[in-house]
Amino acid sequence: MKLLRKTDLILILVLALIPVLILIYNMTGMLSSGDPELVVYVDGEEYGRFPLNEDRTVEIGDTNICRIHGGQAVMSEANCPDQVCVHSAPIDAKGGHIVCLPNKVVLAIENNEEGASAEEALDGVAG
Amino acid sequence: MNDFKHNYYAGGIGTRTAYLGMLLGLAVLFGYVEAMIPIPVPVPGIKLGLANIVVAAILYIFSWKEAVFITALRVVIIGFLFGNMFSIVYGLSGALLSLLGMTLLKKTGKFGIIGVSALGGVLHNVGQVIMATIAVIGFPWRWYLPVLMLAGLAAGILIGIADGIILPRIHPAGDY
What we know:
The structure holds two protein chains of two kinds.
Chain A: H1 6-32, E1 37-42, E2 45-51, E3 56-60, E4 64-69, E5 72-78, H2 84-87, E6 97-100, E7 105-110, H3 117-126
Antiparallel strand pairs in A: 1-2, 1-7, 3-4, 4-5, 6-7
Chain B: H1 13-36, H2 51-61, H3 64-82, H4 85-108, H5 113-135, H6 141-170
């Protein structure tokens, strides 16, 4: 029996094609992506996304209030005991996160100027 | 040479236990060797998966039952020796999905060991990415999945070639 059958070769090509297609899909998504946005997650679910270049105040449920002002986003109020999120540094178009663990609220920047923010955050955890 | 025509590895329960124990030891040893030699790649989680040489071999010499058993033991032992609770959970989800795919593909009888092993390599990483996506909020699976699939494919092909060279010599009765 030959070591590499024809079916194996087809299978390998298909297996190679799938990730390449996913990568191409990711890259086209990145190219067409627009301005940096503030994305609010509550308990892992997306709660809403808001452009950074418009000033506004976002009420997140009845637990947190976040404010976008001058291209920066801060957590202005939270009912949690530790207030870590309120004291976090503002995040802007460069990327970053503000996390309120007690209320499971995450503020993240997407389409930021320095690549995907989630990957940087992950490296920070691993390192 | 007639002795080699039947599957003497699977003989009695004693023979089987002895061979499987030896293969488990070999799998753990491969894991140890890999833990010692870091591969300089920028994406965490990429490795050759030498232990899969043994797992694919067990799948061909014995059956999927023995392969599942030895894989589970291997992941737990390597996890306790060199990893942590997370590496056990990730390792198990990857290894079991990979074995499921390899078993089903082998059952079709249309694919050789390189194809079976290539699918196993891809599914191993797919399983781990699925686990990470469930466990870590905001895990960038869109980027990890394709990169790790390609890495798993390359590793799986290499493992398949290795097994394609080794297996006909130690177990000529099999169909590769």
